[in-house]
Recover the amino acids of this structure.
């Protein structure tokens, strides 16, 4: 089996062991200049369309357009033409649904339960067409299609917020969760960047809504969410070399004391943005003058999204210098309409890496509602049925999932040999037995099926897994990457983990932490994490 390359990073949550005990390094800092990213990821002459500007409107949109057309035909001779513009501008509800970029191969199809949507319309309306007016994307956009320049899509009476991605897929999920929560408390509409993780430089960007059920999430939050492909025609922007100049907040240089600039991101290259960064105030840093942590707090950043907080910072330009943009060398203050921050992974309410804690507002208020799309769940169920050798549509038995993170964690073992540093399979087996017993007591069932997922490449290790009677998702045999793209081995493992009734993960892996939260909160499942780093680290 060819093991996939996981795209999360250690959560680095060792501050509780003392102020100098944080052994995990910070996420690797990317060069702040986007030029290197453009050379790596953007072909000079693209042969295929990655970011087309639209998708066909949904059923309700087509019905609204047909009805509107019929009304206009009947009334055209009797109503003065100049009234039509007045009537159309008086209501957002009459506007056609915004067409979404075709780079997202499918619209989100899973939706909230029938009872949740009954109040919004009849049962044959799906997805975004089922939103009440205040949740529909088109309510907060100027026109029905994405524009070459993002500002032409934004309404003058609406405030927005965005940020950029610069890590692996799991950490980027956390970043997006932080962005949404920050936008909620600041009273702004988040615009989500697509995932651009480095799972193969030839992988096309993948939108949040291709993986997560955005209509369901928006309904649960009762707050609108936009994505960049709804706002900006990225392909046309690159074809016309039409960069958008914008001012953003540079918080990375303040939080990460070893840095001399904002956090670099391929997102800004992909979105064709020319950004002038303003250094954020020192007050955004959670632990002042502490070089081993890079966190800000939500409200210290939210303050910058309000007029008084922004004005207070800009009144002292010597302490908060503006950096000229890379391309046009313009110097712009932070944008008031579209507030943007360079990087939002290291954000918390109270303490670093609190997404691991049960009180985490980012998880409890936002990402707990980020369920998978129905097509993605169906795809994962097909993998499970083949793994269990079940016929199509057969019920899938309850199982326990394991995530053994090894791979690049070897770099954090230091002088400890690999076999001594990483937890042995016997440690995972002990935790599996604990989970089995807790599931028996909690749900009244004994779970015998165990599925191992992980990034280990040694075939002897996988043979030892099989000797224990544990199953594994064989993405090489399934040809997952060839059929669905390089993202999907990792994505499908995450979906399969989240469907389990019990989960055993690897301590300090954000991939494991997110699976642990999903299994616990979605399935009322039993969860454990296996410690590692020294011989007997998980003995208890």
């Amino acid at each position: 089996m060819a093991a996939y390359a996981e795209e999360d990073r250690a959560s680095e949550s060792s501050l509780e062991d003392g102020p100098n005990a944080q052994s995990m390094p910070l996420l690797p800092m990317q060069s702040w200049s986007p030029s290197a990213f453009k050379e790596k990821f953007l072909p000079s002459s693209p042969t295929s369309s990655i970011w087309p500007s639209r998708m066909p409107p949904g059923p309700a949109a087509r019905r609204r357009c047909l009805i509107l057309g019929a009304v206009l035909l009947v009334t055209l001779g009797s109503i003065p033409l100049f009234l039509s513009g007045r009537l159309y501008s008086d209501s957002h509800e009459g506007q056609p649904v915004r067409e979404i970029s075709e780079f997202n191969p499918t619209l989100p199809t899973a939706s909230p339960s029938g009872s949740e949507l009954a109040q919004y319309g009849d049962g044959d309306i799906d997805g975004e067409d089922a939103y009440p007016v205040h949740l529909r994307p088109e309510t907060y956009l100027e026109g029905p299609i994405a524009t070459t320049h993002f500002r032409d899509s934004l309404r003058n009476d609406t405030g927005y917020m965005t940020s950029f991605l610069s890590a692996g897929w799991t950490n980027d999920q956390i970043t997006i969760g932080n962005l949404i929560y920050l936008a909620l408390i600041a009273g702004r509409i988040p615009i989500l960047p697509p995932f651009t993780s480095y799972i193969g430089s030839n992988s096309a960007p993948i939108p949040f809504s291709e993986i997560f059920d955005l209509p369901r999430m928006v309904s649960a939050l009762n707050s609108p969410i936009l994505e960049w492909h709804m706002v900006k025609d990225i392909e046309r922007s690159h074809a016309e070399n039409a960069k958008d100049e914008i001012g953003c907040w540079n918080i990375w240089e303040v939080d990460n004391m070893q840095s001399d600039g904002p956090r670099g991101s391929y997102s800004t290259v992909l979105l064709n943005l020319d950004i002038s960064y303003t250094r954020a105030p020192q007050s955004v840093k959670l632990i002042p003058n502490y070089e081993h942590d890079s966190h800000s707090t939500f409200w210290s950043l939210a303050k910058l999204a309000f007029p008084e907080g922004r004005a207070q910072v800009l009144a002292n330009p010597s302490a908060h210098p503006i950096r000229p943009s890379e391309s046009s060398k313009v110097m712009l203050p932070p944008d008031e309409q579209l507030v943007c921050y360079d990087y939002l992974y290291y954000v918390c309410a109270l303490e670093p890496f609190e997404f691991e804690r049960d009180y985490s507002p980012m998880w409890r208020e936002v990402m707990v509602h980020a369920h998978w799309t129905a097509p993605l769940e169906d795809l994962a169920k097909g993998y499970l049925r083949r793994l269990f050798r079940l016929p199509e549509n057969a019920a899938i038995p309850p199982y326990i999932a394991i995530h053994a993170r090894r791979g690049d964690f070897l770099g954090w073992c230091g002088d400890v040999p690999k076999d001594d540093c990483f937890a042995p399979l016997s440690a995972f087996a002990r935790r599996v037995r604990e989970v089995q017993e807790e599931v028996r007591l909690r749900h009244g069932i004994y779970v015998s099926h165990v599925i191992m997922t992980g990034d280990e490449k040694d075939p002897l290790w996988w043979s030892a897994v099989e000797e224990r009677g544990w199953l594994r998702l064989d993405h090489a045999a399934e040809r997952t990457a060839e059929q669905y793209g390089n993202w999907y081995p990792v994505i499908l493992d995450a979906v399969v983990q989240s469907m389990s009734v019990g989960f055993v993960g690897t301590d300090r892996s954000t991939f494991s932490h997110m699976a642990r939260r999903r299994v616990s909160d979605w399935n009322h499942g039993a969860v454990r994490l296996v410690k590692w780093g020294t011989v007997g680290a998980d003995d208890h």
